[in-house]
Specification:
Keywords: Signal. InterPro entries: Gram-neg_bact_OMP, Porin_dom_sf. This is Porin. With 386 residues, the chain is mainly beta. The protein is 6% helix and 56% strand. The chain has a single domain (43-77, 100-107, 132-385), classed as Porin, CATH 2.40.160. It has helices at 64-68, 100-103, 142-147, 162-165, 286-290, and strands at 23-29, 37-53, 70-71, 75-83, 88-98, 117-128, 132-140, 176-185, 190-197, 202-204, 210-225, 230-245, 250-267, 270-280, 303-313, 315-319, 322-338, 343-355, 359-370, 377-385. It has a 16-stranded antiparallel beta barrel with strand order 2-4-5-6-7-8-9-11-12-13-14-15-17-18-19-20. It starts with 22 loop residues before the first strand and ends with a strand.
């Protein structure tokens, strides 16, 4: 089971501890008539991160690049907005992960399996002030954008969300999915979302002999704005999929479910996120995957759950080159309830320092307990936001 590194998205609720500054590439009024307006802008984040384990064992001794420093989900966004009239917009969005170390061939700071560029989102749509927004393409899951993002506030997260331990997170819709139709309606006190995932291609579920194929899926999510500073979010997703063994020509159909909820509090200097989720037939049976077992009847016959929390307090500095310092503590707990005996618990302390010119530095110390006997760890991240 591979540990994926995840990301924060730009949303209407800017809950990350940093602020993205959009750079306008094109800003043109009256393109075709007196009412329209076209904007093309970009933003991004370059993140160099290093991990220092207190000791090294079989589960982390091969991670030389992560000790030396590597690109931790650096990314670039490009967004287009064509305003047809006062109410209607045509929109498009693109997000790609970039790996500067791989691009520059910085030896010892990337793994051979790393990609130089990796598209995470690519969609287009229409937005109406009264009717809402309709988008189609590859995009983040509703679960992440509505529930998961409320606790994805620290650097070595989200370790208890469904995408982290899925072997096909960009195909089962736990992290993102292609061929997705999504509707969003933003209101003053209550937002709601719906998405439909169309049939997709087969994809290796654990190795080249075991294939995963999504038949279809749908998701619902809500944001309830209890007050101007407290939001309660909920999401549910169901996916119909097939698991295929190429070795013995067997096939099993699965109904995969994820549901979860989170609370997010942002007032004055306090930022607090708490979330929990239940996952059925999402994560592989770890014992089968480690033994390369092709038993499709049991490979995804699992149930698991996750808990996450974050509490941070921002100290405004605004002196010299330092803008703010935010100490925080955070944690998570992921575990199987059936189909596997794997578990992971993290608790930690961190501090985020923000300087001028989009530069930031983060430090975290994690106390970990899991099935791999992962040692305690220090994380260092240098970031540049533009």
């Amino acid at each position: 089971m591979n540990l994926h590194f995840h990301y924060l998205t730009i949303s209407g609720l800017l809950i990350s501890s940093i602020a993205y500054a959009q750079v306008n590439i094109i800003d043109q009024e009256h393109v075709f008539n007196n009412q329209d307006h076209f904007q093309l802008n970009t933003s991004g984040s370059i993140r160099l991160q290093a991990l220092n384990f207190e000791e090294y064992n079989d589960s982390n001794s091969s991670q030389k690049a992560r000790r030396n420093g590597y690109s931790a989900a650096s990314r670039i966004y490009v967004n287009a907005d064509y305003q047809m009239n006062a109410k209607t917009h045509l929109i498009a969005g693109y997000q790609t992960y970039i790996n500067p170390a791989k691009i520059l061939d910085w030896d010892g700071h990337y793994q051979k399996s790393d990609q130089s560029l990796d598209t995470a989102q690519l969609y287009f749509g229409i937005q109406d002030a009264d009717l809402g927004t309709l988008k189609y393409g590859q995009m983040n899951s509703l679960y992440y954008d509505v529930v998961g993002i409320k606790t994805d506030l620290w650097n070595y997260s989200p370790l208890a969300q469904p995408a982290t331990w899925s072997t096909q997170s960009f195909y089962d819709g736990t992290e993102a999915s292609r061929k997705t139709l999504r509707y969003e309606k933003i209101n003053d006190h209550f937002n709601w979302y719906a998405a439909y995932m169309f049939k997709d291609q087969t994809y290796p579920a654990a190795n080249e002999n075991l294939q995963y194929k999504r038949q279809h899926g749908f998701a619902l999510a809500t944001d309830l704005k209890i007050t101007s500073y407290l939001t309660w979010s909920m999401a549910w997703q169901r996916t119909q999929s097939d698991l295929i063994s190429l070795l013995n020509d067997t096939e099993k159909s699965y109904t995969q479910d994820i549901m979860g909820t989170s609370l997010f509090f942002l007032k004055d200097s306090w930022m607090i996120g708490i979330g929990a989720g239940l996952y059925k037939n999402i994560h592989p049976n770890r014992q089968l995957s480690l033994n390369n077992n092709q038993d499709v009847d049991h490979f995804l016959n699992t149930e698991s759950y996750g808990l996450e929390y974050y509490v941070g307090y921002k100290l405004p500095i605004d002196q010299h080159i330092i803008q703010s310092i935010r100490p925080y503590f955070m944690g998570n707990h992921f575990s199987y309830t059936s189909g596997g005996d794997f578990y992971r618990k993290d608790n930690g302390l961190g501090v985020a320092v923000r300087f001028n010119k989009g530069i930031g530095f983060d430090y975290e110390h994690l106390f970990t307990q899991d099935s791999f006997n992962t040692p305690y760890m220090d994380l260092f991240r240098l970031r540049y936001e533009f």
